[in-house]
Design a protein that fits this description.
alpha/beta; Rossmann fold; 3 domains
Length: 523
């Protein structure tokens, strides 16, 4: 099948997408829903999830660019209105791709944006920023005879970029307070407001003052306003799925399963349909590969540091014990020691379920791309020895396991635990011990069948390759002989008696005082 569609990877301009003939999953029905309802909205979605493209689509709509919407769902819906496709004055604030590390960077960027509009509507650039914005709203409304539309893309970028710099963070909050506070006092001049970002910072006047903003981040109606649903994937990209399947020598159904496993799984309302990360999905279809794309820029350092600072056990990330209230998921406070809400808002966690009785959300990784990417980023924070290509990384460990090299496996695990940092104020060894073991063996699950258990009556870890089965039991401050005896006494190897593969039973003893792997017995 010949494929002539162009994939809009990283594209943020709706006009460019439509004029260039790129593939498009039609989200325009949501615009109709929004403009038919409230006037002012806020939406939180993870990075690279299509927020900027949606804001650009809103901009084209409010500018009355009817030609860009031909053949889309909103064209038919708008035909029901009186005088559709009327242009409104649009003030589009885009905080993407800017550097906010300087003290007055935010003011400089706002000044540049205002100057562009002042060329059209007039104004005095020598006056304070908020006064210039106020004048523009009134002047634009008077000149056009229509109220104004304000669109704000990635409003939180000037705050996220300076986390850790308390003075600059407070400075940027104060700038926002003065500038966007205008939106409340000048409501008579506003037709529509839409603000989007990754996080919803509390104590920022854009929210504390603007209580008329409707937060649709956890709204069931708008759960797939960004991202790509499975239905949209099949409708819009069937040719690309076929091409990827042929390239990988698998069936289309197997291809869909692999795409789902790697890039689907985001839920922004309990039991709602899942959505794919569009950036990763489109890159996978373009490259005909199942690579990790969302993590190409790496996990933000402050997220990893926050997880480590509060001594959160890594195994909690996939055992359904991560909880959050609705308020915490939509209202971020930097001083909050709990990183779970921020991990949700930034896309590292998603909604798995909802506990109706306790009124709390149950969270977990959305897919394998995020799961493995995050754990890879987290491991060096627990043990610096786990640096890629160091000879003690996951790939080296996998090579030893695939070849039946138990001595090499022992040496790598010994090096990993020898690299655990030690200070008198740091977390106890048990925290590092459990987290490092969990992360290491979970990451190995990318290459081999690996199960990590902690309940009584099951081995701590069972790992299977094509030629070998490894049964591990780990003990802290107890002899390895005791661990090995438990494997035998509990019959952990019995399910593999008829297996043709070689079975290794391995008892491991760790010394918490020395923070080392002390004993290693293999049978």
């Amino acid at each position: 099948m010949k494929n002539n569609k162009r994939l809009p990877i990283g594209m943020q301009s709706f006009a460019k997408l439509r004029e260039g003939g790129y593939a498009y999953a039609d989200k325009t029905r949501y615009i109709y829903e929004l403009v038919s309802g409230s006037q002012q909205y806020f939406l939180s979605r993870p990075r690279r999830f299509g927020k900027s493209l949606f804001l650009s689509t809103l901009k084209a709509y409010w500018e009355g660019r009817k030609e860009l919407f031909e053949g889309l769902e909103i064209a038919e819906l708008e035909a029901q209105r009186d005088n559709p496709w009327q242009p409104y004055p649009v003030f589009y604030f885009d905080f993407n791709g800017k550097n906010y590390q300087q003290d007055t960077a935010l003011e400089s960027i706002l000044d540049k944006m205002l100057r562009q509009w002042e060329n059209t509507y007039g104004g005095d650039a020598s006056r304070p920023l908020e006064e210039r914005f106020q004048y523009l709203l009134t002047a634009a409304a008077q000149k056009t005879g229509r109220r104004c539309v304000v669109l704000v893309d990635e409003y939180d970028k000037p705050l996220l970029e300076v986390l850790g710099n308390a003075a600059l963070e407070e400075h940027n909050k104060a700038v926002f307070k003065g500038f966007f506070g205008t939106l409340k006092s000048y409501d008579d001049y506003l037709q529509f407001v839409f603000i989007a970002g990754v996080t919803k910072f509390s104590k920022v006047s854009i929210f504390s003052d603007l209580n008329q903003l409707r937060d649709i981040s956890l709204s069931e109606k708008f759960t797939d306003i960004c991202g790509i649903t499975e239905e949209e994937l099949n409708d819009c990209f069937s040719a690309e799925i076929t091409a990827l399947a042929q390239h990988k020598h698998i069936s289309p159904d197997e291809c869909l399963l692999a795409l789902k496993k790697n890039y689907d799984g985001y839920h922004f309302f309990p039991h709602a349909k899942g959505v794919y990360n569009p950036f990763s999905l489109l890159n996978a279809l373009a490259d005909k590969s199942f690579n990790a794309y969302w993590f190409s820029t790496g996990t933000p350092t402050f997220l990893v540091q926050r997880v480590r600072e509060i001594k959160l056990s890594a195994n909690r990330f996939t055992d359904s014990t991560l909880y959050a209230t609705g308020d915490s998921l939509t209202d971020y406070r930097y001083e909050n020691p709990d990183p779970i809400p921020l991990l949700y808002q930034t896309g590292y966690l998603t909604i798995w379920d909802y506990d109706e009785r306790r009124h709390r959300y149950i969270l977990g990784f959305p897919n394998e791309e995020v799961k493995y990417g995050f754990l890879k980023s987290l491991l060096p924070a627990y043990t610096p020895a786990a640096i890629s290509n160091s000879g003690t990384d996951i790939f080296a460990l996998d090579d030893c396991l695939e070849s039946g090299n138990t001595e090499g496996t022992r040496d790598i695990l010994t090096a990993l635990f020898a690299g655990i940092p030690y200070t008198t104020n740091d977390a106890p060894f048990e925290h590092y011990f459990q987290s490092v073991l969990y992360i290491v063996f979970t990451l190995l699950g990318q290459f081999v069948k690996c199960e990590v258990h902690s309940s009584r009556g099951r081995a701590d870890c069972i790992l299977e390759t094509d030629d070998f089965v490894y049964i591990f039991e780990f003990k802290v401050d107890k002899p390895a002989a005791e661990a090995l005896a438990q494997i035998e006494d509990k019959g952990y190897a019995l399910p593999y008696q008829a297996d043709k593969r070689r079975i290794f039973m391995i008892g491991v003893g760790f010394d918490s005082e020395m923070r080392t792997l002390k004993e290693w017995l293999v049978k």
